[in-house]
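Please decode residue identities from the backbone states below.
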């Protein structure tokens, strides 16, 4: 068996069991990140130069990522049981079922017309303020989260697994988690988290565009491609832009627009078409991502079959 088969097994594990309800390794990693940050972040940051703050963050990346990536490589290369570890490590790196469950919880609240509950549930998967969102805003925020997390939490991990095996998936998933904790453009993390954000951008560059192509292939291809070309360059993130624009076009809905983050209104470019989304479109976004996962599994298996990889 080769990595495409491992990928299939890991996806099946995720579909069956979802994320571990307790003792998820990423939770422990997050605790370690906060501990190391308390040691590396200076007591008087205003006395540090930009270069020194960036160096501190880069040292943090090395200390956090290198040991775990090497450990993943060691486990994956163990005779006989390396196959087991490879599958389990990829299973822990993806979160397709968890993403589906969170989005379906929002759908349930919207269909019950319980807007306060829908706001609360969407607040669990987005970083924006949700207390004043209407039903269309809740649907829009949920779809954006499904599309973007489909790229960040699923397809990028699959890509790096197919390219580098379990060490690649572990490296990516931990780097993405580190970016989620340090990659903010605020006063504390603008320079300290600079290296984490740039490293995550580099790791996501190709996967994000492959994800955008996936959304286009499985949705409205004409609108998806047109929105990608015209709207992605206007988005503030070089990787989220193609993913969000292509996904919005593929679904035929309007995404983007103004949103409140930490009490400040952020004017975001409009993405997609003009139709406002609803709970039905959240379901369509979930199906788009899940069908994309199976498409990637199928392509991986087909490539292995054509190239004779199953005999390796």
């Amino acid at each position: 068996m080769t990595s495409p088969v491992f990928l299939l097994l890991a996806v099946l594990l995720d579909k069956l069991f979802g994320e571990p309800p307790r003792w998820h390794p990423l939770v422990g990693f997050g605790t370690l990140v906060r501990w190391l940050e308390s040691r590396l972040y200076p007591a008087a940051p205003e006395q540090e130069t930009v270069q020194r703050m960036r160096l501190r963050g880069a040292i943090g990346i090395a200390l956090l990522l290198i040991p775990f990536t090497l450990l993943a490589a060691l486990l994956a290369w163990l005779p006989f049981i390396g196959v087991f570890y490879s599958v389990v490590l990829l299973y822990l790196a993806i979160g397709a079922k968890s993403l589906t469950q969170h989005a379906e919880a929002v759908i349930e609240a919207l269909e019950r017309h319980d807007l306060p509950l829908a706001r609360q549930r969407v607040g669990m998967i987005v970083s924006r303020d949700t207390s004043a969102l209407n039903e269309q805003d809740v649907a829009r925020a949920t779809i954006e989260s499904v599309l973007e997390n489909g790229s960040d939490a699923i397809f990028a991990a699959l890509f790096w697994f197919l390219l580098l095996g379990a060490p690649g998936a572990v490296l990516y998933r931990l780097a993405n988690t580190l970016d989620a904790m340090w990659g903010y453009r605020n006063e504390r993390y603008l320079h300290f988290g600079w290296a984490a954000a740039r490293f995550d951008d580099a790791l996501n560059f190709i996967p994000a565009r492959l994800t955008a192509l996936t959304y286009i292939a499985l949705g409205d291809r004409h609108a998806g491609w047109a929105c990608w070309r015209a709207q992605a360059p206007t988005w503030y993130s070089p990787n989220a832009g193609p993913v969000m624009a292509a996904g919005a076009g593929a679904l035929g809905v309007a995404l983007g627009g103004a949103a409140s983050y930490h009490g400040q209104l952020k004017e975001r470019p409009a993405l997609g078409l003009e139709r406002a989304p609803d709970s039905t479109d959240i379901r369509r976004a979930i199906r788009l991502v899940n069908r994309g996962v199976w498409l990637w599994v199928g392509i991986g298996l087909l490539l292995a079959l054509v190239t004779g990889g199953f005999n390796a």
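Observation: The chain has a mean pLDDT of 94.
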